[in-house]
């Protein structure tokens, strides 16, 4: 009987003891805090990756609009070597994103369509990247009678006697922990830039000159 009473007293003291309450509450809340922290880290990594891919698309479009050989007195010519250099530069810029292993880049030359007034055509197109299932959202080289390229309300067009370079970059997101914690597992960023100088669109093959020993990055 004495031992039973002592057991009851010990149980009452234990029930009244609040010294480990904070540790117990922390133990219950730790999984939630851990999930929130990991989700926050994953979303931050996703946003940074998407921003970097967006910048790659913009820089690639800008560089594609600047390339060409020739003086200010003549229309500049572009070659397969110029385009390959552009694509190689984009891969180097991507760094640890490993753009060409995890995505695909598509460059299109948007020009006025001579057969359809007020419309446009994709004169040539070049691609690079392991995700070959990804194609342009606006058609392949040779497509004609386009209103432009881009999302509704933000169509990119070309000047009457000029060229616009349109870039699409597809990327499969590489998660820190788990792709399910990020908004999307893949995304596509696009950018366009009008060619400032006069460009030779007549010579070569559809305006692109071939170079011995250089393989075209065809789609």
List keywords for this structure.
219 residues, elongated, alpha+beta, four-stranded antiparallel β-sheet, single chain
Structure description:
It is a single chain. The chain contains 4 helices and 6 strands, in the order H-H-E-H-H-E-E-E-E-E. By secondary structure, it is an alpha+beta fold. It has one domain (30-209). It has a 4-stranded antiparallel β-sheet with strand order 3-2-4-5. The chain has a two-stranded parallel sheet with strand order 1-6. Strand 2 and strand 3 (120-128) form a beta hairpin. Helix 2 runs antiparallel to helix 3 (80-94).
Output the radius of gyration.
29 Å
Structural class: alpha+beta
Distance between the termini: 90 Å
Strand content: 15-25%
Number of domains: 1
Strand tally: 6
Q: What's the tally of helices?
A: 4
- Multimerization state: single chain
Mean pLDDT: 87
Sequence of strands across the biggest β-sheet: 3-2-4-5
Shape: elongated
Q: Are there runs of 5+ residues with pLDDT below 50, and where?
A: none
Protein name: Pilus assembly protein
Keywords: Membrane, Transmembrane, Transmembrane helix
Transmembrane segments: 21-41
Helix and strand arrangement:
Elements: H1 2-16, H2 21-66, E1 78-79, H3 80-94, H4 99-102, E2 103-112, E3 120-128, E4 164-172, E5 186-194, E6 208-209
Parallel strand pairs: 1-6
Antiparallel strand pairs: 2-3, 2-4, 4-5
Summarize the structure.
37% of the residues lie in helices and 19% in strands. The protein has 219 residues and is an alpha+beta fold. It has one domain.
